[in-house]
Amino acid sequence: MDQIDRRIVQCLLRDGRASFRRIAQVAQVSEQTVARRYRALVADGAVRVRTLPSHERLGEQVWFVRVQCRPDATGALADALAAREDIAYVSVTSGGSEIVCQTRTDPRHQSGSALHRLPRTAGVLGYNAYAVLHMHLGDTAKWFAFDDPLTSEQAALLHSPDPHQEPTAQAAQEPSDTAALPERDRRLLAELAIDGRAGVVELARATGWSKSRVSDRLTELLASQALHVAVDLAYPRFGFHDAAYLWIAVAPGRLAATGDALSAHPETTFTAAVTGSANLLVTVTCRTLEDLYTYVTTKVGALDAVQQVDVVPVLRRLKQAGTRLHNGRLIPT
To answer: How far apart are CA 13 and CA 117, in angstroms?
Structure first.
């Protein structure tokens, strides 16, 4: 990946629906070059952009689960978990005897959930489930660990008004209520789940709506935070080969401030307060294990409220943000 690819990706991480025109201005190349490079990154399994309903709007609870299992059963069980629609992340950790996954549950319908079925699954020796209490989100709570980050001027240009820009999530309003999204949005949501950058013309063709209706509805859903734009990267394609879960015990009175601080680190991909004795969960993606060591000792270790850290390296990731992975590439289904 060269500098142009990295600039395109960094623009997408800041605004997944930014126009090719605006990205081209930031990357200082032609709009046609940006479009061609982006399509090549998608085809290579390096990048995927999806626009999805928020968990809160759907009334879902997010959990992380650590599953201890027999080493000879790990592969089959991890594959089975990755095949489930209600599981977004699946990783094999701890020498191959543990699986960490992120799952969603509907409190009204739990009988078929992964949490309900895991205790009855062959090969499972034990498991611990942690409810996500609060996610640290926002523009600074994103992974930006490239060696050549965008300058402040480039970031400002990306977010400056663009008369050619299609609806994006940049102008957020107060979140709307948590009622389920209307059935009439089903086709629109299905298309955005496949391609989060789908334009008004493509969405109008898929839904049978007028372009103005698509634009107005998409703007409403993004601005109300009923939808969010998720940009997923195959990190090994960019030279980042070592990921880990950090289960951190933090003094309760300083949990929020510590979570905010950790989420602002460019190495972190996810930060959330969770239930359990380790009350903060952080996922980290680094180039090497040596970089991971440096991060834990110099940045995490520098936070006074951190009492204990359990570093759990990822051996193999099978699913990420709802997308399967194979040989380090995102494989949309």
So the answer is: 35
Domain assignment present for residue 139? The answer is no
Q: What residues make up the domain containing 244?
A: 240-316
CATH number of the structural domain spanning residue 260: 3.30.70.920
Q: Is residue 279 domain-resident?
A: yes
Exposure letters 192-215 (e unless 16+ CB within 10 A, then b): bbebbbbbbeebbebbebeeeebb
Phi/psi of residue 47, nearest 5 degrees: -140, 145
Hey, how many other C-beta atoms are within 10 angstroms of the C-beta on 106?
A: 13
Residue 28: inside a domain, yes or no? no
CA dist., res. 89 & res. 75, Å (int): 15
Q: Are 135 and 282 in contact (CB under 8 A)?
A: no
293, part of any domain: yes
The series of mean pLDDT values per 10 residues for the chain, 333 residues long, is 94 94 95 97 95 79 94 93 93 92 81 81 90 87 89 89 66 46 88 94 95 94 90 94 97 96 95 96 97 97 96 95 92 79
